[in-house]
Amino acid sequence: MTLVDNARRGRRSIFARRPFFTLALVVAVGYVLAAIFAPFVAPYDPVAQDFNAMMQPPSGAHPMGTDSYGQDILSRVIFGARYALIIGFFAVAIGAIGGLIVGLAAGLSGGWAEWALLRLIDSILALPSLILAVAFIAILGQGVDKVVIAVGLSMIGPFARTVRADVLQVRVQLFVEAAGLMAIPRAVIIWRHILPNVIYPLAVQVTIRISEAILVSSSLSFLGIGVTPPTPDWGLMIAEGRAFVSFAAWMSAMPGFALALLLIALSIVGDGIREEFDPKLRGKS
User: Fold this and answer.
1) Is 213 a member of any domain?
2) What region holds the ABC transmembrane type-1 domain (predicted)?
3) Which of 27, 49, 76, 168 could form a disulfide bond with 69, CB atoms 3.0-4.6 angstroms apart?
4) How many domains are there within the chain?
């Protein structure tokens, strides 16, 4: 049996051993496809108002009902997936890049610079991501782009901690010390030997943090300080439906279910990837 055959059988075994991972991955991919093709999938314009169809219950014309402005909730949920994933991916990218820079600097520097960076990381980790995001939103203002930046900045701490821990382990390895004894420039050592060994754990961490970023951004919108109306954001839709929950529960229930399902799917996918590729956890599975 060739190495290619072994690799293919290994890939199949991931899905065979983890049925919930497979199901969650299918759900997550479905959300991504819905977000990409939202203009073609959504039956109505997500911001179009029809005051003759306000707060209609789910029906054939409106499978998820309508809101207080007569907007089709299904269309807004579909477009909400686009905004949720955009905010989640870009916010995590900002957090990962910022965490990589801070973590590398903290792991490789010494003296007062290391002390200052460690205090910065500790101060970020001392507060929940939502509280930090609220503080950044207060400075930056509202809007999709501002939410992306605020959530991304609030996630630098966890990424920086992961990168620094990996750097501290890699820099004492024999191949790194040998490169230093050979008078190889420090920048080359970082680029060729240290960075490749910290990128992989960072990438695994990214898959886990996307669901957190989506939850934080939706929480900001729910509090009224994130995405602004009439943007089809799930958190905003849940907040708008609170006043009508006693007789039009679908206004909050539909986006709430969509948000919960995506968060659960992404969490299962992230945990599955981490357990599959982490040697310590893989031995226990």
Assistant:
1) yes
2) 81-270
3) 49
4) 1
Q: What pLDDT tens digit does each residue of the chain (285 aa) get?
A: 444 454 455 555 566 677 888 999 999 999 999 999 999 999 999 999 998 989 999 999 999 999 999 999 999 999 999 999 999 999 999 999 999 999 898 888 877 887 888 888 888 888 899 999 999 999 999 999 999 999 999 999 999 988 988 888 887 777 777 776 676 777 777 777 788 888 888 888 898 899 999 999 999 999 999 999 889 999 999 999 998 999 999 999 999 999 999 999 999 998 888 877 665 555 555
Residue-range definition of the domain harbouring residue 105: 93-228
CATH number at residue 190: 1.10.3720.10
Look at residue 18 and give its three-state secondary structure: coil
Q: Is 261 exposed, middle or buried (0-12, 13-18, 19+ CB in 10 A)?
A: middle
> SS3 for 72?
strand
Residue (of 209, 109, 205) closest to 154 by Cα position? 209
